[in-house]
Each structure stands twice: as C-alpha cells, then as structure tokens.
Amino acid sequence: MEKILRIQQRKIYIFVVLFLLMMPQTLQSNDIINLIIYQGSIAFASLIVIYGLLKDRKYWFISAVIILRFLYSIAQIYSTKLAGYSTAVDKHDCYVRLYTLIIFTYFIFSYRKQFIVILSNLLIVFLSVNIMSIVFTKNYLTTDLQIYFLGYRYAFCPVVILALALSLAIDYSMYQRLAYRSWFTISISIATVLIEGPSTLAAGLFAFLAFSIAINTTKNLPFNLYWPILLVIIVVDISITIFNSTGIFAGVITNILHRDMSFTGRTEVWAGSIQAFLNSNIWFGNGSALAAGQVGWSWVWEAYYSEHNHYLGVLTNGGIVGLALEGMFYILIINKINKRAKTKENTIFAAAIFSVLVMGIATQIIPYTYMEILCLITYHLEVCFNQKSNIVAVD
Q: Which of 353, 363, 24 shows the shortest CA–CA distance to 201?
C-alpha cells in the first residue's frame, strides 16, 4: 500500500512539473505566477545539474542535444546584439530552453516509460480541452485568427504531432498494436484539423501517415531513405521560396499549370524575408527582434507578418550561422534514428520528426519547445522505452 502511494505521489509530482513547464500561453496571464514558475524552474534545473556533478556523477545532462541548442541560443543572442536590438527576450528564451531540456532529460533518465506515459496523458488533456474550446468559442462568421486554449491554430501543429507520436509508441510498446490511447488521440487530431486546424497540420498528418506506411510495409526499405526525402524537402522549399521570389518557379506553376503559387499570401512574406536577410549581416542575420517587427507584406492578409517558414525564419533571424546550427541539430537526431533497429517506436518518432520538417516549409513551428522535446525524446528513445542500451538510468 505504501509503495502504491509513493508511485501515485510521484505521478502527481511529474504531472504538475510538466504542466507548469508546458502551460499554454492562454493560462500565462499572471506576471507574478509566471515569474515564480520561471525562477523556480531555473532553480530546479540548477539543483539537477549540481546533483549530477557532485553526487550522482552521471553526466547525462551534458548531451549533444542540450549543447547544440545552447550554442544556437548563444548565436541568437549575439545576432540580436550585433543588429543593435535588446537581447532580453533572447536571454529569456535561452534560459527557458536550457531548463526545459535539462528537466526533461532528468525525468527521462529517472522515470523512463512512466514519464513518457504521464507526458502523453498531459498532452491528451491539452488537446481535449483545446477541442472543446474550439467547439464552444469558435466564431464561424469570421475568417480572422482566433485564440483557443492552445493559442492560435498554428500552435496546434507541434502539440498534435508530439501527442500522436507518444500515444502510438506507448501502445505499440505495451500491446504491440493500436489501443484506446492511440485511437483517442487520432480522433482528437482529426477533429482538430476538420474544425479549425490549418492546412499545414493536415499536411503534417499526411506526411506522418505516409512515412509510417512506407517504412512499415516495405521490408527492405531502410531508414537511410530519410536523407533523399529530406533532400526533396530542401529542393521544394528552395523552389517555393527563393525561386518564387524571383519569379522563376512561380512562372512555371502559374503560367503552365495554372495554379496559385501565393500559398495564401505567404510568397510575398517569403520574398520580404529573403530581402531582409540579404540586407543584413548574412552570417548572423537580423536578430530575433526583427521577427517581432514582422518582415513581409501579405496582400491577402493586408498586413505585415513574420516569415511563415521555419527555415527562412532561422535564416532571417540567425543568418548562415543560425541555420547551420539548426541543420546540425536535425542531422544529429536523424543520424540517431538511422543507427537504431527498425522498431515500431523508432519508426513512429522518425515519422513525427519528418512530418514537422514538412510543416516547417509553410509555417513556423510555434511553440518550438514541443519540437525540441520531440527531438530530445527521439534522441533518448532507448531509455524512454527500455530498449537495449548502454546507458544507465538514474536511481
């Protein structure tokens, strides 16, 4: 009985910490509470590091994932400072990124699959509340962006993909098939897309499904397929953005295929982003402050908007250095995927990473914390699902 009570207390503790770390923007209205969470998270992460250095002596928190994201944050701070803007927001983002990754890594190594199940439960709660907020508050008489529990509809994308990956992997790990958790998450995801989800989320779900089917139904299809697929993504992205801004690619589509290449006004924003990058220090970009000033005019939306393309956003804000660090981060994760056996769990998370990269062509991955968590779990997948590994968990 006492053991069961301790387990339940641990589950509550993990759930509460995760909720505070991943609390949607719509609940972050009290500045005092936000400050307490922010400072408390820094203190908690610092204690974890001190414990690891002095007592535990297992330096799992010094991982390639955390180091690369730290370097990316430092580069972003330098870019903003070089552009002559205040670096306060960048420093805040750096602290949030570091303590989130450190705390999540600690939970992964300490509680393994139990932590993954609790995280999945939390995301299912988020999606359930979000779909109810859509159903009961959506104004069907306007096309303007509306704010729901998870924020604007573009914020649904990484949450849905991470929730799906966790649910599917947990069910296959426990039952070797799709069970109630997966079907419930799939149902909520489809309902979200049908009622209010952006087209980029629909494209992401399709990419997730197509990649999973391709890998699982073809016996001789290796994970090395990832690289040519990513090459296609890069070619498509460059064709749609850079060539479109010069009129080369757009002329082929609009004049020969008679299709609209504006992507609902995005191409004008992309052209503005490219011009902003070319007018900046190409090595370090314009700094993140420019994105807040919004870089491109959209004739469809009749307003200035930020990049609406994840890769262009990184390039505009952080220059070639920022984009190189971002690329190294994904190469690290994909190499880790390729080195593993073709298990169901590995396939699912490979598909999830692929789908988010596809969505990045036509939208910015916001909130980006979810993408980093997805990559972190993918990197430590053997630990999360107790697969064969040389890594020893924290006692």
A: 363
- Angle 360-364-368 from CA coordinates, rounded to 5°: 100
**Spatial distance between the Cα atoms of 65 and 45, rounded to a whole number of angstroms:** 16
3-state secondary structure of 388: coil
CA distance 41 to 191: 34
> What is the per-residue pLDDT across 128-146, written as a single tens digit (0 to 9) for each?
999 999 988 887 666 667 8
Q: Token pair of 242, please? A: 């850079």
Residues 313 and 302: beta-carbon distance below 8 Å: no
Tokens matching residue 351: 């598909």
* pLDDT band, very low/low/confident/very high, at 393 (cuts 50, 70, 90): very low
* Whether 252 contacts 286, CB under 8 Å: no
Query: Cβ distance 87 to 81 under 8 Å?
Result: yes
List all residues 6 or more positions away from 140 whose beta carbon is below 8 Å from its beta carbon.
Answer: none
Q: Please confirm whether the linkage preceding 367 is cis (ω < 30° from 0).
A: yes
- Give the whole-angstrom CA distance, residue 210 versus residue 72: 31
For the record, the structure tokens of 368 come out as: 């980006």
The CA distance from 353 to 45, in Å, is 26
Residue type, 36: I
Alpha-carbon distance of 94 to 71, in angstroms, equals 10
